[in-house]
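Methods: holo model generation. Sequences were used as deposited, without trimming of termini or removal of tags, and paired with ligand SMILES retrieved from the corresponding compound records. Each pair was processed once, and we did not select among multiple samples. The sequence and zinc ion SMILES for this entry were:
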Amino acid sequence: MTENYHTHTARCRHATGTEEEYVLAAIDRGLKILGFSDHTPFIFPGDYYSTMRMYPDELENYVATVLALKEKYKDKIEIHLGLEVEYYPDRMGDLLKLITPYDIEYFILGQHWCGNEQGEPYNGRPPTDDNARWERYCSQVIEGMKTGLFTYVAHPDLLHFVGDKDFYRQHAKRLCEAAVTYDIPLEINILGIHSGRHYPREDFWKIVGQTGCKVVLGCDAHSPQGLADFPSEDKAMELVKRYDLNLLDHIPLLPCK
Ligand SMILES: [Zn+2]
Ligand SMILES: [Zn+2]
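and the model returned the structure below.
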């Protein structure tokens, strides 16, 4: 890997290390481009508390910290400032307003919940055999793609569906065809491989290969060490070879505003 746009910071409350440690780890392993994409803040109505993302009032410090490192290390590595964002139709307007004063360069789409999060089950676990949930997940990711706000889709195979295999493939194909239509790459998630999660899953990436979607690798680093996980990257490359995936050499950034 020479580029990674999927990197977290401790603000999400489930990542470790300082931002500078991530930058040094990226330089050390030879990345040319490091994008920070911590879990976005959202403004939720009422007193709802989302436990896995920064608060809106932490955004300013996030931006300042990353931009200071971008300047400090500009001769050693190209740093970009992004966010990992769920497509929540009712929350997007406020999010775009919230980021207006800041130089946020890109969004990656990570659909950890459907709907607008509140009152919804987490998509990553536990496993579900509910057809409606897989169909709805795919539809919401596709709606997100249509907005044109997202540089790529992180872990598109996040929803842990264990129901009917034909039904799974039918909607995976729909998602992949939309990725081709809207020209959005899909990410093989290195953290999923490292942690032995249900993704990346073989039946999904087989369809990606058949559909010809653009594919990228993303560390999804929640620690500086996550930027140099060579055994997991090797497994990702085996997946690329097995299904003849259309892996991009360079990830084009799509402006998010
Ligand atoms: Zn995370
Ligand atoms: Zn992530």
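The beta strands are 3-4, 33-39, 78-85, 106-109, 150-153, 186-189, 214-218, 246-247.
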